[in-house]
Amino acid sequence: MPAATRSMLLLLGLAALLPLRAAAESPAPEAAGATAAHEQRQARRAQIHTERQALQAQLARDEAACYQQFAVHDCLGRVRAKARSGEHLLRREELQINEQERREKAAERLRSIEERQQEQRQNQQSGAKPPPMRATERGNAQTRAQQAQQAQERAEEQQRRTAQHAQELRQRQQTEAQQVPEARARYEAKQQEAQERRARHARDKAQAEAAGRKPAAPLPDPAP
């Protein structure tokens, strides 16, 4: 075969191998998608942290403003309930992000197991004997299984705590909703009592002056 022909065939072979090498070096679509999803979750976690700090700062400002008002208790109840509602929404979104991440990791482990099983089936069909699993591989497999079980238990425990937190929040809101009218009723009753006492004193004073007697000193108003 002439040297020119051999050179041409060699160049054609190298050109055919270039796309295969590029495909092998480029990341798989699943891996690229998982990386993008992970980066999005991390960015959202950082944003939630910033929003939580802003929520706490706003609560501090609102509480300071409440102490300048007459109905301090009512104002504090409103601003704190608003802050708890905002914190509940942020926490619920955090749990959703954690659950999505847990599911993706579980799916990735499942794909890895299925790929290994598929490789074993192909080896059996081709007559090749699969290599024995080393002790370290068995230990890693057991560790991954334990980690998956622990992750599932943590997710279930977190869901239980979230449900309990939501129930406690509803109970506190109901209790505060009941306490606000009661406090307002007590305040109005004391104001009414003080007004009636002032009216009686004015009447007694007028009667004493009409009779030529010195009127008695008025009683102090009750504490609010």
What does this structure look like?
The chain has 224 residues and is an all-alpha fold. It has a domain at 35-97 and 154-191. It is 86% helix and 0% strand. The chain is built from four helices and no strands. The protein has helices at residues 3-25, 29-66, 72-126, 135-211. It is rod-shaped and about 125 Å long. The N and C termini lie far apart (112 Å). Residues 19-27 have low confidence and may be disordered.
Highlighted features:
rod-shaped; single chain; 0% strand; mainly alpha; 224 residues; 86% helix; 4 helices
List the helices and strands and how they pair.
Elements (H helix, E strand, L loop, with lengths): L2 H23 L3 H38 L5 H55 L8 H77 L13
Order of helix and strand elements from N to C terminus: HHHH
> Structural class of the helices, strands and pairings?
mainly alpha
Please give the radius of gyration in angstroms: 38 Å
Count the helices. How many? 4
**Shape designation:** rod-shaped
Distance between the termini: 112 Å
**Main pleated-sheet profile:** none
Mean pLDDT: 76
Q: Give the total of beta strands.
A: 0
